[in-house]
Design a protein that fits this description.
By secondary structure, this protein is of the alpha/beta class. The chain is built from seven helices and seven strands. Strand 1, helix 2 and strand 2 form a beta-alpha-beta unit.
Length: 270
């Protein structure tokens, strides 16, 4: 009996074609990554401020991952630039909630906690998603190093279907693991982050939707280094016409932007 596996010519050509495509794709992807990194370095030389998004994997059963609503970032950066006259790069080809999910080039920078060298280039980074997630040991180590060396991280829960705080819970648990139990603390309303540009002392953290755990953060000495929000500030940034988020709670697109501006100004001045 002949045990040799036989394949048809079509199958052979299909496998050969896939292998050839992989050989072509690998250098192409590497080149694309190199191009993005080169562009990022040029941007850092030209612009005074960029706000990178953190790229990471989360539970795929949710709809919105790390790349949701690049237009929200654009709205915040425009609000920031109206207060501080400097060269700010705006994410291209996006506005408000369009597109729903952005490509890498539609953010003014993209970072990954696997790359501490790239992280160190930015004093302020932003991370959001709907789903649960876990960082591996390398990412946890780089997160701690980035924060200990002076970086600032805004972590904001993109609330799942108006209620689930899955990203918030994952973030809280990870921070307590990396920095120690009790390291995530409630931020008092008299803290300067609520008063430095806009006075939000009467409301504290603007509440767009979801489970409101109040303002939480992680401090390195006296410096607030991580701001953890469960109230979906980011979705508030998208809502320029005030149609979707926060209206029932008395908070608005304007207040979510003001909170974002306060956070950027705090990070840049500490």
């Amino acid at each position: 009996m002949n045990n040799k596996t036989e394949i048809t010519r079509r199958q052979f050509l299909g496998k050969a074609g896939a292998a050839a495509a992989a050989m072509v794709a690998a250098p192409a992807l590497a080149a694309k990554k190199a191009d993005l990194e080169t562009q990022a370095d040029r941007d850092l030389d030209y612009f005074d401020f960029l706000m990178p998004r953190v790229k990471f994997e989360c539970d795929r059963r949710v709809e919105d991952y790390w790349s949701v609503f690049p237009g929200a970032d654009r709205n915040l950066l425009q609000a920031f630039n109206s207060v501080v006259r400097c060269r700010v790069k705006y994410p291209p080809n996006c506005s408000n909630n369009n597109p729903h999910w952005g490509q890498d080039y539609q953010f003014n920078a993209v970072v990954d906690f696997r790359d501490i060298k790239q992280l160190r280039k930015y004093p302020f980074i932003f991370m959001t998603a709907e789903g649960r997630y876990k960082f591996d040991a390398e990412r946890k180590q780089n997160l701690k190093q980035y924060i200990d060396q002076g970086g600032f991280l805004l972590m904001d829960d993109c609330v799942f279907k108006g209620g689930g705080d899955y990203f918030y819970q994952s973030s809280f648990a990870m921070l307590e693991e990396v920095f120690g139990p009790g390291s995530v603390k409630r931020i008092a309303l008299d803290h300067e982050v609520f008063h430095n540009v806009y006075d939000l002392g009467n409301i504290g953290l603007p509440y767009m939707q979801g489970v409101n755990h109040g303002p939480r953060g992680l401090f390195v000495g006296d410096r607030l280094a991580i701001f953890l929000s469960s109230t979906d500030l980011h979705c508030g940034w998208t809502d320029k016409r005030g149609l979707w988020f926060g209206r029932r709670r008395g908070h608005s697109h304007k207040e979510s932007l003001q909170m974002g501006v306060n956070l950027i100004m705090y990070a840049l001045s500490h």
